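User: Please predict structures.

Assistant: First:
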Amino acid sequence: MHQKLLKILHNCNSLKQLKQTHLHIFIHGLQDSTFLLPKLLTLSSHLGSPHYAHSIFQYSRCPNVVACNTMIQCFIGKTRVGALQVYDQMKALKVSPNSYTFTFLLSCFESSEALEDGRVVHGDIVKLGFGSSVFVQNTLLDFYAKCAGGFGFDSARKVFDEMPERDVVSWNSMIAGYMSRGGIEPAMRLFNSMPEKNIVTWNSVVSGLCKAGNMELARLVFEKMPERNDVSWNALITAYIRLGDMSSAWFLFEQMPEKTVVSWTAMVSGYNIIGDLESARNVFSLMPVKNVVSWNAMIAGYVHNHMFDQALSVFRKMLIDGKCRPDQSTMISVLSACTHLGSLEHGKWNESYINRNKFDMSAPLGNALIDMFAKCGDVENAKAVFDKMDNRCIITWTTMVSGLAVNGWCREALALFETMCLRGPKPDDVIFIAVLSACTHGGLVDEGKQFFYQMEHEFDIKPRIEHYGCMVDLLGRAGKLEEALRFVENMHLEPNAVIWATLLGSCKIHGSGDLVESVTRRIIEKKPENPSYLTLVSNLSASVGQWKDVLTYRQVMRQQGIEKVPGCSSIQMGNKIDEFLAHDTRHDKRKEIYGVLNCLNEQVASVSDGL
């Protein structure tokens, strides 16, 4: 019967099946079986129910050390409190611990908060005679080395020095501990005095030196390695990539005897980071094998470098290739590309793909969908995604509030924020930017003042320059220029050029020539080289007839070679998205486009003449 029930347990793949099998075990009176109990506990934990495992253990009448160790192991990476409860129960039942008990127990202690508990267990290890066990001592050493603060690491060094016997794991733990704290010199002294080194030792030193930025010594150690594996090569290559030294990274990459998909992908990502998309695409094309991370790196590279159409093109090729299934990271990058292009058609297709392939609606994926729909103007679909999400984080609420605001649903945005304050996460400084922007878009001056006050006094959030900018914009658009100026003068931060430019823009809208001169002077002092601000100042001076100032500003722009970044727009035709720049000379159909524009200009002129 034992073998039959063990076989049934082995085939359980859901908690429901496990509970049914557990019932059979009870019926046959085998709930305390030394063979079945550990298996029950392990399976409960693996199926995502450590609480059920703990309840099984609590009702067992005479658990042995194997069952106790199994229960403690279930708490690794979850909670040390449960593990300590089991350990205390072992003491009460007079179950003698073994070396596995202490290794599993110490593995549950992963933070500095557990330091005192670890010391108690350390005392038990010594008292019960496990101080000579290299296996237990290495776990204890690793525990102290991982504890934050020098005090915990001092204990690690004490354990190491007092060990009657050390193996290569002992040395590696100490070296890794020193390296993680930036202790290069003591780490290298230990490394040089090691009686025997393995590949893990060498890799630990190379990785530690790379993280410390000591590339010269890292390269020297790397060259001395008697043997190297993928970890060795990738540690050095990724270190050069982090420093932006792609020539050194490529030199090493070419020397690799066997290039793995991880190495290829690292090179693709490295070129993406420095904006060399041509080299990134060339490396990507040469890859003998690609995984989903490789495709994601290429797609994300195009997105981060604002080449959104190319990102969608790579995604299409990924689907056609069919060897790698897109994951959540893929879809988030692709949705970001759709958002920046304003391509609702592509965005809807991607949502359909997500639904067809039954993706879990995680917070990041849901946030990306809400952002895409909102920025493409489809508020209803954005709300539908928001309503379906079970796990909403502060970013989810912020994205939805901002999405409603930019589409003119300003009061709905404020109502949603108030709902969040009642039952959602605590507001942060970012969502208040979205809330104040909603007030600005809706011209809700009194509400904006109220929320600004609430942010400071109810939620104790110190205003950032962005919050001040929203308030200046809100007051300025409402024509309250004097109040806006007083607000700027009373800011606890020094106003930047954006604040003054916002106020200047309001002066232009409401025709306040009195403020123009003083505000203009402030902008020129802050950002004399910014073409957008200089253009704004020049145009405003022209609108109030200050032609002398106009000539001065435009002459400064010409002398400094300053040009305003041209405006850009895009339009989707079928599966292709065309981008247009002001005075565009690169578009392949520029002759036809300018021909149509000239015809339109002539028609507008003829209609104007007839009026």
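Second:
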Amino acid sequence: MCQENGVDKSNCMCQEQHESHDNRDDESQSLLTTNQFVSSYTDEQSKGKRRRSTQSKTELASLDLWRLQNLAIPLSYLAVGTLQGLFRTFLNVYPLNLGASEAQQTTCSTLATLPAAFKIIYGFSSDLLPLFGYRRKSHLFLGWVLASVVMGSLWLTSNLTLQRLDNGTSAASTTMSHSVVIVPDDAPSLVQLSWTFFFFGVGMWYADATADAVVAEKARLEPEAIRGSLQATCYVLRFFGLMISASISTYLYSTVGPQVIVRALTWIPCLILPFVWCLAEAREEEQQNQDSDRRGRGLSDSFTATPFIKKHSLRDQWDEIWRTVCSRSVWEPMAFIYVFNLLQVSNAAWRQFLVTVLGFTEANLNTLLVVSYVLVYFGTIMYKYCLLQTSWRLIYQGCLVLNLVFSAMQLLLIRGHTLGLSPFVFALGDDAFAEFLNGVQFLPTVIMMVSLCPPGSEGASYAMFTTVMNSALMISPAISSLLLGIWDVSKDALEKGDLDGLFNLSLLTTVIQISPLLFLGWLPRDRKELEALASKPFSGSPIGGGIFLSVLFCSMAWTFVVAILNIVRPNWAGGS
């Protein structure tokens, strides 16, 4: 071809060599580009693996309750249990030492527990109103500060000492029932005492609702194999605090005096504040920036120790909660929880029987209470380490059957058949082991509630679910009191030895307590079955959501009315 075109052959060969060299350069460049792409892709994979590994390590760190950044949470649960054990004992005795009637003592106790009915308000505030840029730790801090300041004002402005005399001599070692109590002139009034414990309760339950919200957020990061262990640990700590404080508070009150209880109620919240300050939570603006950056790098929102909380308006959060309660996976299991707790109707004349017929002393009754707290604690321990993966339905079924057995023991005690045991030991087995069952079945309930919380609304939604349970538990005693009028279970009848009415009432309450077996089909067996409910008929029905909220708000209203009636007209529902 070179000859035909009149071109020198050597020049043509040189041109062909150049073309061949250029082709090889193109192939080399293409191969280099391919290798660079593969290398880049491999680097991206490695970076992705490192990011996922870092994310996994960070999530696991956020679940470690004993790291300094998380320590405020378990300490808050421990504190709530400890404070409950302390102030229950205090309010059972100190108002009476001040000369209060039983009605006035009931008023003090009612005002101390009433703030627990407002937990849904505390939940909404922590979800919607960030303070100083924080949505959780600022509210947790505020709750404990309020509790400490309120109780500290009682300590600093009142003389809480008592002088106990017996036959004109000091008798600090004698029992309270055989001593004369002398109250100083500058002791707190009953009005001051009542409202102090009311606002103390507001602070304590405010902090408790905020801690619940943090745990609900962190529970989403738990691996499936240990799902629920975070909550189990927290509530085990709460019942441990209740057990220990209930065991020592009576001793401290009788030997040192009420002032030591009030000091403890003041200082315990203060001791938590440094740990609340160290609680890991990014400011709202930082969380938003970090979340945008993480999404750009392909990471999930839960990369940091505290999951990102999307900002909601009140209307947005209400819409989200409405969609949540309309889901069948919410209103059906919560209907069972409500019915179950509502039907745990006790025999309201039982305490009178123990004192009037069996001759139980205050020491005996306090021993029953302390042992009950101990067994509640061991019930939660048993669930955490032995039953965490057990079917929820099976746990409730077993507890209801065992409750029937212990109720039968109550009937035997009324008839005097104690199987050779002393009445006190027999009653101890009946009352205390019933509390053990309550500890076992409590944890599956709260674990299920966390599974129902929508992201970003954990505070309000979890508080709403616990309010459903707590309101049912507060209505149940009113039902117990109303049943007293069916048979004669008055103190006079018991003193005369007429126990037929008491036996019939115990039999009726036993049947009521085990009747939730009829509704067990409403309770899912596990989380998979809970999630499957969302796809079943009537899920998303506004009728189901409307009934759920109607029951909730009516129960809250009833709880408030009962509290007011207990204040202005104690024993309004009857008495034994």
